Write the structure tokens for this entry.
Amino acid sequence: METRIVIAGFGGQGVVLAGNLLAQACVEEGKNVTMMVAYGAEMRGGTANSTVVISGGTIYSPVVTRPTIAVVMNTPSLEKFEPLVTAGGLIVGNGSMMHRGVQREDLKSVTIPATEIAHRLGNVRVANVVILGALIATADLLKLKSMERAIEILMAQKKAALVALNLEALRAGFAECRR
């Protein structure tokens, strides 16, 4: 069983880091995983997405054309990827940056105010990690502990000062979906 995930938003919303964190958490659990990135030439402010494929077996292609899960940080990302998610799939959305909800009735959806939660934590740039917490709480993919470990590993060298904030953001997004 493969899980095909797209994480999409504007450049600067941390979708690449979110994909890297998700992939590292999979490695922590011994799962097979691939991660790819696509972004517009504009970088910050342009469109960006990362795709993650998770499997217990061999992954034959890292390319995701029909995701089973879409994590969307804004309305343009929702509009682009909602039609592509497979029936029965999941959309996890950042309600702070979306002007509408999921319209397809054959999908599960969870929307949290990720940017607002990040703002309350003191840094809107951790909205990407807040939304990952919501994903972990909603989808039966990974353990919260594995995501925490991924944050510690990937941020320890260059962003050590932000480890505690990102752990708090992850837990806040997780808690938002468990209320």
Q: What stands out?
A: The mean pLDDT is 93. The domain at 2-178 is CATH 3.40.920.10 (Pyruvate-ferredoxin Oxidoreductase; domain 3).
